[in-house]
Amino acid sequence: MAHFTLGGTLSYARQLEPSPGSADRQRPTTALSHFGVLAGWLGLVMEIVSGTILRLADDASVQHVGDGAVVLLARSGQLYTCNGTTEAFLDKIDGARSLDQIIGLLCEEFEVDKDTLDEDMAALAADLVSEGILAAPST
Fold first, then answer.
1. pLDDT tens readout for residues 47-60
2. How many domains is the chain built from?
3. What is the CATH number of the domain that holds 102?
4. pTM as predicted
């Protein structure tokens, strides 16, 4: 089960299975379980859209461990765990790529319908912004 744990709340869940004929590609096979497509940061509601440029928050660092990663927010000391799928998403966030560009890269890595991935990754990005892991997009 792929997961990203936000303060003890499971917000992203997908079962991944290898794609036929490829050991490197994976295919999400179960429904996404997330809480909200809209993120709130400092009481403001924002929607993450395809053109939104994503970057890690200044105090967030990602460390790769085993089959996933951990995210540390230095300011609060909060530690989050994530699986390989979320790790792949975070690895593509560089402060220059838009959500749509990141999704394009993920489509190359995982066998998944782009429309489904658009919705799922927008929701994940919104959750990460609300947790302070991603910087709030500028308007």
1. 788 899 999 999 99
2. 1
3. 3.90.930
4. 0.69
